[in-house]
Amino acid sequence: MHDGSPSPTTERTRPLVAHIIDRLDIGGMENGLVNLINHMPKDRIGHAVICLRDATDFRDRINRDDVPVIALGKRLGHDPAIYAQVWRTVRALRPDVVHTRNLPAAEMVVPAALGGVPCRIHGEHGRNRLETRGENVKYNRLRRLLSPWVHQYVAVSRDLEDWLQHRVGIPGRKVVQIYNGVDSHRFHPPGNGRDPLPVNGFATADSIVIGTFGRMDPVKDQTTLARAFSELVSRMPEARARLRLALVGDGALRPQVDQTLEDMGVADQVWLPGFRDDVSDLMRGIDVFVLPSVNEGISNTILEAMACGRPVVATAVGGNPELIADGETGILVPPSDPTAMAEALARYVNEPELIARHGAAGRQRVEREFSLEAMVARYLDIYERLVATRGRVARPAS
Hints:
The structure is a single chain. By secondary structure, this protein is an alpha/beta fold. It has two domains: 9-181 and 372-390, Glycogen Phosphorylase B (Rossmann fold, 3-Layer(aba) Sandwich), CATH 3.40.50.2000; 208-369, Glycogen Phosphorylase B (Rossmann fold, 3-Layer(aba) Sandwich), CATH 3.40.50. The chain has helices at residues 28-39, 81-93, 102-106, 109-114, 137-146, 158-168, 222-235, 254-263, 279-283, 300-307, 320-323, 338-350, 352-369, 372-390; strands spanning 16-21, 46-51, 69-71, 97-101, 119-124, 152-155, 175-177, 208-213, 243-248, 270-274, 288-291, 312-315, 330-333. The longest helix has 19 residues, at 372-390. Helix 7 (222-235) packs across helix 12 (338-350), helix 10 crosses helix 13 and helix 12 (338-350) packs across helix 13 (352-369). Strands 3-2-1-4-5-6-7 form a seven-stranded parallel beta sheet, sandwiched between helices. Strands 10-9-8-11-12-13 form a six-stranded parallel beta sheet, sandwiched between helices.
């Protein structure tokens, strides 16, 4: 990965895909993009990342040295200057494909088209807190207006695929569904039981560690998990000394989560380390993974937990039911329902053999259905097929 200017188009013999996103920071969609770039054959597809706002140190996770990351510095809210900036950027890059992701980048297919990009893809990876049910009339009208500028839509779940077709009104022939894949080599089960977390005295061998990982945001709703953990401790006083909660991540919801834990008297049983970049190691240090979101596309952290052999308690929203076999690899609960979440967690506390059984089944499902290789192959096919029918690839000057 580099931040310099892209190579001149006269030197290019492979298609170039320019990925346009709001910003490159910690998140499931961004993690999926980095995985895609890192694992796609270097000799077949080139990549560039255009960030409408900015890029954090998360850019360093791109392990290729031929991928420019371009930050345009868009102001928050509506910034009319961004359309000209995107137009100038694609005129300079001359990509064969522009691939926008999620609503903040959706409109950029228009300046991309006007800038001469022959192939345009838009991906839907999940909806924000302003449209958790996908019924926002204004946003859906905008998506329909943009549809003629888009050649291919990619939905990361069947739930989003169905919504695009039947709620938004995108023709089915333009929509494909591709699940995220997980690196099952990096994310693998621990050698035996549970690995220790990097915090002295937090958990002992007989502890049951419940954990979640991700940005602290109202959509992710870690407050419900904090309440559920408190309720679990209250209903199982005999197990209090063994129960632990790891809330890994940071964000706008952090103060509310901290206050909830203090108010409920369980803060001394909770580890809140903030942002960590060693999630694959930490995932092996918990017994049960929880995703309390009020909305999801396809959760990378669910897949990572399953790959690590961890059972999952998650809300039955978005694509979560497509990942979790309820009662086989985890337990689904209603959103914003701490009592139901506490009941699901109590099952694992009372039946520790269920942790191992559901965890092993989750690992098997990842290996069978959610491999990183399958995801990369699907995207590669879309890119090369569109370029073959609509695109251009610059050839070396003679």
